[in-house]
Amino acid sequence: GAGVPQDWATHMLGHELTAMHGLDHAQTLAIVLPALWNEKRETKRAKLLQYAERVWNITEGSDDERIDAAIAATRNFFEQLGVPTHLSDYGLDGSSIPALLKKLEEHGMTQLGENHDITLDVSRRIYEAAR
């Protein structure tokens, strides 16, 4: 997008899941995206509120309630399409998270996101939240 900050962190975290566990790209996006949005909700607040209103027509409640509802609606949408949204849904218990982080580091994916603020520690929290 010309002039629009872009965040490819969901894709990068997802690529490591694909490489390590053989999940397809749609599955990894459905796993990572809700967890990433929840983790980065403060820095993505304005965009998440815009998303809540424009995509899901969520206009009632506090900012946090609308963000929670938008994330839940997104997760529900993926689930209704038959794409589970947790690592555990694919028989993964999170024990590979250290290896996933090592691969991210090996691939230079240590400052992801539009603000380059998704460090390995943040990536760990995202993977853990996706369990």
| Class from helix and strand fractions | mainly alpha
Helix-residue proportion: 55-70%
Identify the CATH architecture.
Up-down Bundle
What is the CATH level 1 assignment? Mainly Alpha
CATH topology: Dehydroquinate synthase-like, alpha domain
Q: Between the first and last Cα atoms, what is the distance in angstroms?
A: 31 Å
How would you spell out the order of helices and strands? HHHHHH
Largest sheet: none
Global geometry: globular
**CATH evolutionary superfamily:** Dehydroquinate synthase-like - alpha domain
Give the tally of β-strands: 0
**Rg over alpha carbons:** 15 Å
Pfam families: ADH_Fe_C (PF25137)
Domain Fe-containing alcohol dehydrogenase-like C-terminal: 6-102
GO molecular function: alcohol dehydrogenase (NADP+) activity; butanol dehydrogenase (NAD+) activity; metal ion binding; methylglyoxal reductase (NADPH) (acetol producing) activity
Organism: Escherichia coli
Verbal overview:
This is Iron-containing alcohol dehydrogenase. It comes from Escherichia coli. This protein has 131 residues and is mainly alpha-helical. It has one domain (9-129): Up-down Bundle (Dehydroquinate synthase-like, alpha domain), CATH 1.20.1090.10. Helices cover 60% and strands 0% of the residues. The protein is built from six helices and no strands.
Question: TL;DR?
Answer:
The protein is mostly helical and 131 residues long. It contains 6 helices and no strands. It has a single domain, classed as Up-down Bundle (Dehydroquinate synthase-like, alpha domain).
